[in-house]
Amino acid sequence: MKYYDKLIFEISRPGRVGYSLPKSALSNQQSAISIPENLLRETPAELPEVSELDVVRHYTNVSNKNFGVETGFYPLGSCTMKYNPKINEEMASHAAFKGLHPLQSADSVQGALAIYYHTARALSELTGLADFTLTPYAGAHGELTGLMVMRQYHLMRGEAQRTRVIVPDSAHGTNPASAAVCGLEIVEVKSTADGTVDTNDLKGLLDDTIAGIMMTNPNTLGIYETQVVEIARLVHEAGGLLYYDGANLNPMLGASRPGDMGFDIMHINLHKTFSTPHGGGGPGSGPVGVAAHLVDSLPNPRVVKGENGEFKIQDAVSACGRVATFMGNFGVVMRAYTYILSLGKDIKHVGPIATLNANYVKESLRDAYYLPIDTVCKHEFVFDGLADKSTGVTTLDIAKRLLDYGYHAPTIYFPLLFHQSIMIEPTETESKETLDDFIDIMHRVAEEAIADPGMVKSAPHTTPVRRLDETTAAKNPLLKYRDLA
Amino acid sequence: MLDKIGVGSIDDLFADIPASVRLQKEYDLPEAMSEEEIRAHFDALGAKNKQQVIFAGGGAYDHYTPSAIGALTSRSEFLTAYTPYQPEISQGTLQYIFEYQSHICELTGMDCTNASMYDGATAAVEALFMAVAQAKKKNRVLVSSTLNPAVLSVIDTYTKYKGIAVTLIPEADGRTDRAAMQAMLAEGDVAGVLVASPNYYGIIEDYTGFADDVHGAKALLIMQCDPSALAVLKTPAEWGADIACGDGQPLGIPLSFGGPYVGFLACKKELVRKLPGRIVGATKDVDGKRAFVLTLQAREQHIRREKANSNICSNQSLMALHITIYLALMGKQGLREVNEQSYAAAHYLHDELVKTGLFASAFPDAPFLKECALRTTLPVKALQAYLAEQGYMAGIALGDYREGMDDCILLCATERRTKEQIDELVKLVKSYEIL
Questions:
Q1: Model confidence over B117-146: pLDDT tens digits?
Q2: Residues on chain A touching B324 (C-beta within 8 angstroms)
Q3: For the residues B334-349, what does the mean pLDDT come to?
Q4: Which of A354, A378, A384, A391 has the alpha carbon at shortest distance from A366?
Q5: Which residues pair with A322 in a beta bridge?
Q6: Confidence at residue A63, expressed as pLDDT on a 0 to 100 scale
Q7: Contact predicate B206/B183, CB 8 Å
Q8: Among all residues of chain A, which has the CA nearest to that of B400?
Q9: Alpha carbon of A418: minimum distance to chain B alpha carbons (Å)
């Protein structure tokens, strides 16, 4: 197929239109906007002038240069790229919700509030926490909101000095960044050789300046933190709170609940565990759940159930504040709610099957790729590059070669604990046949690395574009159409 | 599969979880539902919503959404893709972000922008953070009282935890009090000033001289704006602002009970290294083909961790695509027409209500586009409840947000409101008075 590389601005022709507005009975003859001249735009915005067919063909061609979960297998560690069932999309575009204004009176949006309320109840049941806010827009926004709840809790108890938060050295980059935005100082806790939190190191860090600790469990290596109960005891005894980064929640469905582990606050990435699409980088949704003693600190507004079963939108003075203009990505919540209804009680199979798939791939590939930590994993695991280090073929090369074979690359160079990290997460929605095909290709790439390393190092060869000049892009930023002229 | 792994059962894969925290019960959730049952369930819930004709804005505007947008944004290649970290197979996402950036720069007049923010409120917060980061040693910002109260509330929350001082600039006759701002700037510790156009009351404020005032105090001027209105209104760049921010919802994103929408944040090129989030740049591949890539990543959380200026990672990419396609379809002519028709509808509504003798402009002679504040002799809340019963969302009761405005209502009409709907609303208002 012919490669399409035009920008929408490049197919613009004067006078062409792609919209259809009714003739207004109100636009008066002069049709002018009668506003003082000095408040009006001096030069018109050069927006494209294109027909509807131009637009549809353009974006269809543009989409063909993309790779989604429906294009092929997406073993992207830490991102839980599971299939997003079509019924989620159908329900999210239900006509009875599309036209609701976010400031309509509560009695006129009872259906929408019911979805908020019941989704929060289901998340509470699945995590063992007392209540959730569904407002945060994404995982990082959830982290920040959760940390605000943490600080608010300490402030209300008169412990303003608790401004330090413990983060493992293997944590997602958003953890320390969220803590910094929340005005917290970061203290790193070391990992042991198997990638779990070093409890001895932790003990030395705990005092009355500690607000809490942020953890993922399973951690970024896909390993369950078996010391979690002890960690919870230590942190709570020191007056701190435990924050659970829900990026890795998927394998815990049906296995273990963060609330039971001792966590006080968590966020969930609905676009990971609850099957809402990633959209090329959002909109996601990052609900924040808390244990009973923190419910009053959740951000405003909250959806609560009244005495007569009606749903209300409520503000509390004890809240940590407000984190969004309205109540978050409602459309994403609708998708997650649909997913929860589709699986119901059977959602307990999600974690076990995701874990089975991950361990199967790991054991099938450990002959060709170096497995630095040899233990049972949960939803994901990490190789440290090829087993044979003599070829000079790096993790980046392997990732790029996989693109030629029609696979999305795994997450690479994360976690930072190893030099050549390849992080693989197959998810529960993939069949054994898909996994076997992927395993075959991974073996073939390992063989190619020995037989023809130059070919692997120059991959990809069959993608719409090949390796890019990222250095020039950063040195001489061209960030909009006008910069190209 | 179990043989390959070398365990006897799936349960064995969870043997490392301490018994005390291993899930021992069935989840208290309903049985799995079929698609037909789910449809019926949503239909039943949907029936509990009351569909209303929207005469309100307050940060969410009922504009027309062209049909082609949904057909294109729902393509799975866009919808189910991850963040474009593998550029060779993500040119679709990277290209539309580049086009989105071009559109936002065109509307605001700014040099650069990022791949999107969560919403207008968080974009305003990040703009203030940029100003503080740029100023290095100054830690105070000024924010006009004429901003949307929800945005003010989000700013208050974020700055409280981050440790940034915020001073509200008072309003005078519904506009930012310039003399008060000048006095605050004279104190010398201000990093940035945030104003809005149009402001919360729908007023198009005259910011003549503001940029000179702010720059004279070595601070940055930040302007929150309605991107749809920028087809006709003076741009932040033309006002001399350094940063522009706002919510992209007015660009044809359905109301959808508040989300997903999309925030935007744009700035002068001198500030690009303080801009948070993802940025796409043009480059070439090894064969010399034009291509797009995430660039200037050294600013971001996954590289800088706690030293990053922002924690944003996932943003609202698909909604950025939505408004990119909207702007392509509407184009130069369509976006102008949206503004003209909205202006005509809102002014007709205003004039007809004033004619009843029950309403008067809260801020007489203040120029507005599609939203305006009116004082009324009728009881605001009771009137709204009555009109809601008849199927109309009649504005926002300003008394809920502003002192001394219990008799004020913030009304809005976009190009979607017809003469018949407005006439009917006015008729109902009159009938309420007789009741």
A1: 999 999 999 999 999 999 989 999 999 999
A2: 8
A3: 96
A4: A384
A5: A300
A6: 97
A7: no
A8: A103
A9: 16
Q: Residue A198: what residue type?
A: D
Tokens of residue A158, six digits: 């008169």
Task: Express each pLDDT in A190-224 by its tens digit.
Answer: 988 777 899 999 999 999 999 999 999 999 899 99
Read off the tokens for B319. Answer: 């909604």
Domain A88-347 coded CATH 3.20.190.10: no
Choose from A12, A47, A278 for mutation: most chain B CBs within 10 A: A47
Do A255 and B156 count as a contact with CB atoms less than 8 A apart? no
User: What residues have CB less than 8 Å from A475, skipping those under 6 apart?
Assistant: none
Mean pLDDT across chain B: 96
In chain B, residues with a C-beta closer than 8 Å to the C-beta of A108 are: 49-50, 52, 388, 393
Listed by number, the residues of chain B in 72-111 with a beta carbon closer than 8 Å to a beta carbon of chain A are 72, 74-84, 86-93, 95-96, 98-99, 101-103, 105-107, 111
Assigned token pair, B39: 């449809």
Domains of chain B (ranges; CATH) run 53-63+332-434 (3.90.1150.10), 67-325 (3.40.640.10)
pLDDT over 70 (residue A8): yes
**What's the CATH number for A350-457?**
3.90.1150.10
Q: ipTM of the assembly?
A: 0.97
| pLDDT confidence tier of residue A1, bands split at 50, 70 and 90 | low
Phi, psi of A245 (to 5 degrees): -80, 110
Side-chain-side CA neighbours of B360 within 13 Å: the count stands at 5
Enumerate the domain spans of chain A.
88-347, 350-457
Q: What is the pLDDT of residues A392-422, one digit of tens each?
A: 999 999 999 999 999 999 999 998 889 999 9
| Bond before A301 cis per omega within 30 degrees | yes
Q: What is the distance, to the nearest Å, from the Cα of residue A415 to the centroid of all Cα atoms in its chain?
A: 16
